[in-house]
From TrEMBL:
Residues 35-58 are annotated as: Disordered. This is DUF7730 domain-containing protein. Residues 57-174 form the DUF7730 domain. It comes from the Eukaryota. Pfam families: DUF7730 (PF24864). It comes from Glonium stellatum.
């Protein structure tokens, strides 16, 4: 039988010649491809062996710590010793709420840098997993939150959602939305919207009004202001117009006396120091009368 002639010499060993093997029929391209795959496989196995021996898993089992110790870590990371001022900023055509700096100065109120450490550097802790988020979120919202006006309060409540709103504990307002000036109608509408969104905030134990409330104008319908009302009575009517749904919810869920223990009238709420004590009782009495008719 006549041997098949090859167009090129074929070698399957470095020491082998074409005459020695007589043409074994092995394609050199296939041999090189197999050798390349084998070398790549050996390299991958070597890397896996080195990684398993030299660099073990360094993750810390945080959730295996006792609950008391985890809570202490959350307090160190997310608890602030000073009130947190929340301002608004337009970013990418959206108005967002971010942390600012506030210094309790006499009127006019001004914003100053603060040397105290805020919990912004540790907020990434809430994005670790669902379990840590559920444990750490109440610690974050237990801080005292100050808002420059009801507009910032409304935007903040709209962004955090109902679950986070239920964890709020302490809120302070520094300005009230009035109808005068540029954008006054929008600011005045924010009063009603902000307090309506506080419905469902079961842990909220303190709402301080450290601001002046506009008491101009009358009320529509049956609740028209009467001439016998004092300045305190008109303040009650103005506040009731904005927070009537929230006041009614507190009376139904926590009792009729819960509003007086939750709502705090700050220094800037009154025209003079003499009205602070004398007008407080009248203020809450008018609110109760308006909420009961």
């Amino acid at each position: 039988m006549k041997k098949r002639s090859l167009s090129h010499p074929v070698f399957h060993r470095p020491s082998c010649t074409g005459d020695m093997c007589g043409g074994c029929g092995i394609d050199p391209a296939i041999t090189a491809q197999r050798a390349k795959k084998k070398a790549k496989k050996l390299q991958t196995q070597s890397k896996q062996a080195n990684s398993s021996t030299s660099s073990p898993d360094q993750s810390f089992p945080f959730l295996l710590l006792p609950a008391e110790l985890r809570l202490e870590i959350y307090n160190l990371c997310l608890k602030s010793s000073t009130p947190l001022l929340l301002n608004t900023k337009v970013r990418a055509q959206r108005r967002i709420v971010r942390l600012g700096y506030y210094y309790a100065n006499e009127w006019p109120r001004q914003i100053h840098p603060s040397a105290n450490t805020a919990p912004t550097d540790f907020l990434a802790l809430l994005r670790t997993c669902h379990a840590i988020h559920a444990e750490a979120t109440p610690v974050l919202y237990a801080n005292s939150l100050h808002f420059p006006s009801t507009t910032e309060l409304y935007l903040f409540l709209a962004q955090i959602g109902p679950r986070a709103r239920a964890r709020l504990t302490n809120i302070t307002l520094r300005a009230w939305g009035h109808s005068g000036g540029y954008g006054g109608s929008t600011q005045k509408l924010a009063n009603h919207a902000a307090f309506s969104m506080l419905i469902g905030a079961e842990r909220l134990t303190r709402v301080e009004l450290d601001c002046f409330i506009d008491c101009k104008g009358g009320m529509d319908g049956k609740a028209k202001p009467q001439r016998t009302l004092t300045y305190d009575g008109f303040l009650s009517q103005s506040f009731w117009r904005a927070a009537e749904y929230w006041i009614d919810w507190i009376a139904r869920e926590k009792g009729s006396n819960a509003l007086a223990s939750t709502l705090v009238l700050g220094k800037m709420f009154w025209r003079s120091q003499k009205e602070t004590e004398s007008g407080k009782e009248k203020f809450f009495q008018v609110l109760c009368d308006l909420n009961s008719f």
